Here is the input.
Amino acid sequence: MTELGARLKEAREAKGYSLDDLQNMTKIQKRYLMGIEEGNYDMMPGKFYVRAFIKQYAEAVGLNPEMIFEEYSNDIPVTNTGDLPELSRVQSRKPVSQSSSKVMNVIPRILVALFVIGAIFVVWYLLPNQIGNDNAGTDDTQEESVDYSESDEVQQPDDESGDSEESTDADSDSEGSETGQSEEESEEPVEEPSQEITVANVSGKETTYELKNTDDFNLEISATGDTWIGVYNSKDEQLFNQMMKEGDTQTFELSQDGEAFIVVGNASATNIKVNEEQINYEVSPTEVVRQDIIIRRSAQE
Here is the structure.
C-alpha cells in the first residue's frame, strides 16, 4: 500500500464508509477503489482514468483533490490533464437542480404545447371548410344534372317517358355514388407528427435533450474507440457502467421509464442513437472529452 492509498483509506474509515458505500457514492467499481488504496494502477481501464478516480475518491471522503495531487505527485501517474475526464457523478448533476435550469427546462415544453394546440386548431378550422366546399360543388353538379334530365324529358315523345324516368333514376344513383366518393376523398387522415429530439439545456459538460412525438425510447450506444460509459435511469439506478472497446454496442429499452442519464468518458469515441436517430453533441468532443448526456421523453399531448 502506498502513502497515498493509506491516506485515502484512513479518510474513508474516518467517515465510516465501506468500499461498497464508496462504490454507490462515486459509481466507481469496488475493485478500482481497492486498486487505488493498494497503489495498483495497472488494473485501471486506462492511465487517463487514474487521476479522475483518485480525484473522485478524495472528494467523496472530504479531501481536497488539488492538495492530494500536489502532496503525492510522485505516487500518481503523470498524464495530459487537459484530456482527463472528471467522473464526479454528484457534481455533474448540480446545475440541473438550480432554479435557472428548471425554468429553462419548462420553457421549451410550454412552447411545444402552444405549437401543438395551434396545429390542432388549424386542422379543426380548415377541414370542415374544405368538406363544405366539396359538398357545395357536389350540389351544383346535381342541380345541373337534374336540369339536363328534365330538358331531355321535354324533348322526348310521350311514348318514351318510361325510358326517360329509368334514365333519370340511373343518373341519380350515379350522382349519389360520386357524391359519396367525393366526401370520402375529402376526409383525408391527419398525419401524426414525426419524432423530434431538441436541446433543452447546455450547462458546462452536461447537455439535456428532449424527445418528443413518440412513445418509444430505444437507446443505442456504440464505441469507435476506448470509452468509459455509465447509463442510469430516472430512478438513478445503474444500468451499465464499464469500459467499451472499438466496435462494442450496447442497447437499452427505456420506453416505460422515459429518461436516461449517460456518463460518456470519451465523447469523440462514442456514438449515441435514440430510436435509430443520431444524437449530435452540442459541446465539441475535441474541447470536452468527458460529457454528461440527459435524454428526457416528453409526454404525448
